[in-house]
Write a structure and sequence with these properties.
single chain, alpha+beta, Protein Transport Mog1p, Chain A, 7-stranded antiparallel sheet, two-stranded antiparallel sheet, 3 helices, globular
Length: 177
């Protein structure tokens, strides 16, 4: 009987610890690169700011965050190095309240399922004279959210979609900052 009770107690404790960790991660921490930009953005915008709890490699190596914000929009752009233009670009996170377009109107996008039943719109890396980053758009309330990641053009679309969707889901699940 003691073994059964001990096993049940260990199981209950394990579930409690797991639930606490999952809950903690959902609202979770913020990668350090966002900290200074977030304070500035929140002081200027009324749009709920969504940022991921984690950044996958190599985006986690970004060292600089440049922000732009007004009452109805924000953008936080991450760079590996400043002063290098697009060569130093890593990622961008932004939103606009009452956008003048819907992501459904965009060309060359694929529907993706995001956290909370949200439908997102994915566009893979595209190259012409230079390469445009992978993009993800979704609507939440009256805001249109955008996420861009500079992924390698040689990375297949399925993998691009998986990576950008994971980052988008992390931002959605973390909730407004």
């Amino acid at each position: 009987m003691k073994k059964v009770f001990s096993g049940a107690l260990v199981g209950v404790l394990a579930v409690a610890v797991l639930c606490t960790c999952v809950r903690g991660n959902a609202a979770g921490s913020l990668p350090d690169v966002f900290l200074s930009a977030l304070a500035e953005v929140k002081a200027k915008t009324t749009v709920p700011v969504l940022l991921p709890t984690e950044l996958p490699s190599p985006f986690s190596d970004a060292k600089h965050a440049v922000d732009k914000a007004t009452a109805d929009e924000y953008a936080i752009t991450l760079y590996y190095e400043l002063g290098m233009g697009n060569a130093g670009f890593a990622a961008s996170f932004g939103a606009r309240d009452n956008a003048t377009y819907s992501p459904r109107e965009l060309t060359n996008v694929q529907d993706v399922k995001l956290a909370g039943g949200i439908v997102g719109f994915f566009r893979p890396v595209s190259c012409g004279g230079s390469c445009a980053p992978a993009n993800l758009w979704w609507e939440r309330g009256s805001a249109l959210y955008t996420l861009q990641l500079k992924l390698p053009s040689a990375l297949d679309e399925k993998r691009q979609r998986k990576i950008i969707t994971q980052v988008g889901n992390s931002a959605i699940l973390a909730g407004p900052r």
